[in-house]
Structure formats: structure tokens, C-alpha cells
Write a structure and sequence with these properties.
Layout (H helix, E strand, L loop, with lengths): L1 H24 L2 E6 L2 E6 H30 L4
Antiparallel strand pairs: 1-2
Length: about 80
């Protein structure tokens, strides 16, 4: 009987752990956009940040190419 009680405790522990993990995966982040409060999932905010980083890197690359062309007197 004691072994069965341990298994039940273990299952309850896994259930609680999965609920906590699911809660963290669906956490929301409060952001101000256009003067309005907006709740955003953290994953969505991360995706937006990654897109912005990619855009900034593209702009930097274009600026480097432009400066290089200016130094070489190319149009």
C-alpha cells in the first residue's frame, strides 16, 4: 500500500510541474503600443524583437555597403 501512495504522489508532482511549465509558456507581457495597453504573449514579443534585430542588421549592412561605395567613388 505504501508503494501505491508514492506513485500517486509522484503523479501529482508531475501534474503540478506540467501546470507550472504550461503557465510559464503562456505568460503574457504587458506592453504599451500606440498609447494603449496591450497584453502580448512572451513568445510573440520575442518574435517581434527578433524581426526588429534582423531589420537593424539589414540596415547596418546596407549602410556599410553605401559607405564603401562612397569611399570608392562609386554611385
Amino acid at each position: 500500500m505504501k508503494k501505491a501512495f508514492g506513485v500517486i504522489e509522484l503523479l501529482i508532482g508531475f501534474l503540478l510541474l506540467s501546470i507550472i511549465i504550461a503557465g510559464f509558456m503562456n505568460m503574457t507581457l504587458t506592453q504599451m503600443q500606440n498609447g494603449q495597453m496591450k497584453h502580448t504573449r512572451i513568445q510573440d514579443a520575442k518574435n517581434q524583437a527578433d524581426e526588429m534585430i534582423n531589420q537593424i542588421e539589414d540596415i547596418r549592412q546596407k549602410n556599410l555597403e553605401y559607405e564603401e561605395n562612397l569611399l570608392n567613388n562609386q554611385p
